[in-house]
Amino acid sequence: DMDSTLITIECVDEIAAGVGLKEQVAAITEQSMRGELDFEQSLRKRVGLLAGLPESVLQEVYDQVLKLSPGAEYLLSECKKHGVKFMLVSGGFTFFTDRLQTRLGLDYTHANLLDTDNGRLTGRLNGRIIDAQAKADLLREYRSKLGLRHGQVLAVGDGANDLSMFEHSNLKIAFCAKQILRRAATCCVDKKDLREIVNLI
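User: That's the sequence. What structure does it adopt?
Assistant: Structure tokens below.
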């Protein structure tokens, strides 16, 4: 998972700050993460509120607001050292996952594609929605492609959208997570430090 897991922010909330709607969008995000709203509906509703924003806001969020969670680079270096493949799958946006893939050398990334027209967000999404089911499907797909056993797969997340992904992994790590995900986890990390995951592995 990306938002509030690999990175410290919820990207859609920070983009919404550009139209003065951060609190409104953040409230919808919170409900979705607790499992109180259907993810796809809540995502489309939040993205709809971004209509008209210049694309440059995305770069501003990436450059000025987005920060890696503590220990992220250490976790990734340990994964690479031991031949662990790393897939970043997010209900967030490809604008951010693509840049993080280049910056951090991630093996695979999947996220939602924001629609734009003449340099502005339209408030719509293009293509497949990366929701809980898509996360689970992608985990299964890559497990099969890589020839891994169930016991060789771990998933890390923080909200309801990560529940289905947990069903297809052996080690299920709830990272500073909502209660709904904690209940399904193998173990919970309550310290905002991804180095804790290395210790669990």
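Strands lie at 87-93, 108-117, 120-126, 154-157, 171-175, 187-189.
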